[in-house]
Amino acid sequence: MHGGKVNMKVLIVGSGGREHAIATSVxxxxxxxxxxxxxxxxxxxLIAECVPIGAMxxxxxxxxxxxxxxxxxxxxxxxxxxxxxxxxxxxxxxRAFGPKKNAAILEGSKAFSKDLMxxxxxxxAAYETFDDADAAIAYLEKADFPIVLKADGLALGKGVxxxxxxxxxxxxxxxxxxxxxxxxxxxxxxxxxxxxxxxVSVLSYVDGKTIKTMTSAQDxxxxxxxxxxxxxxxxxxxxxxxxxxxxxxxxxxxxxxxATVDAMAAEGREFKGIIFFGLMLTEKGPRxxxxxxxxxxxxxxxxxxxxxxxxxxxxxxCIDGTLDTVDLQFEDNAAVCVVLASDGYPVSYEKGLLIKxxxxxxxxxxYYCFHAGTKQTEEGIVTNGGRVLGITAKGKDxxxxxxxxxxxxxxxxxxxxxxRNDIGKAIDEA
Length: 430
Ligand code: AMP
Ligand code: GLY
Description:
4 domains; 5-stranded parallel sheet; 12 helices; Dna Ligase, domain 1; D-amino Acid Aminotransferase, Chain A, domain 1; single chain; binds adenosine monophosphate; 9-stranded antiparallel sheet; alpha+beta
């Protein structure tokens, strides 16, 4: 069943701000009658029916999708994609959006993605891969610093260490490979050349052969203003990036985007879903920092509100291999997302605090309050995670969007509310 089906039932798998942004786009589709989300959160619960099934409970997800006759399951998160949820849904005769396990490895193994880029001449940092800590240290003893250590597998975006000295690098090898700080993700280690430049995120829809890139975005990964503090999942985003020029786009179209899709196909790993290109604009040109096999979080919170297309039509075209017929379009404006976090994130923080003012977003065009870590209780909606809300606002340009987003951060309150005050500061330098 595909093409022009209406009265669709859609299931979204995940529970963050990204899944709330996806659900918000899905809710706008005239083709969709009913949205479920597993497990979802309090905000998603306002537009979808949340079901208490975890994203890694594959048997339960498949059984639920069969029972409810779900027409399309959208897998938002990396773990279930890398674990093969799309394969299990397909095997049960169900349609799903996202790469199969053999393609999600593009995100699931950094060693795989680096080898792929090397084999197909896709520009990226020089690297070596190690299965053995002693060999890694012997290599580092002769290396130039700074240098970058990456745990091979998924590590919640935290498995990357930038080391300025040999001592730091030795400690890094120990914590990743021997102490297994990131679990089995650290069984292999990628040691990478350190690069400098601005970072840009480009998300794209892929149908196995055709790729259509979305408008660009930039994330702010560190916890504190001025890019200080620990790495987080992302503290805020803006879109488009003024540094993503036509020239950069042309380079990436020529050497990176289609080349990646073709490389995956040539390896017998046809990729259907979202490829997220983490790019660094170096002096020598754009380089791939990393691939993800899903929407970015919080990149989705600024990119999706600007997308003009019906997201269901685009996703179905990816599944059916007809993306070449889709005219992907974005609004000629800008969006900024400021994450409201719990003070102490990403280390330790209090949860269960009442959130006030959420109703102020009702009916406000161009403003969005995407829930990440929230929970519905009898007292109301309370905080339930490190990243609590993503406050997104649009504007005619980036400066207006930024002013609007920061204004809207004042509408909601909770006791340990924390945010960065410099999201989008870089646009002043453009
Ligand atoms: P990743 O999870 O691979 O995106 O890495 C997380 C962050 O580490 C990136 O957003 C960059 O800021 C930084 N990073 C990763 N690889 C490199 C590199 N080769 N050189 C400099 N910084 C890097
Ligand atoms: N914001 C970066 C990511 O989703 O990986």
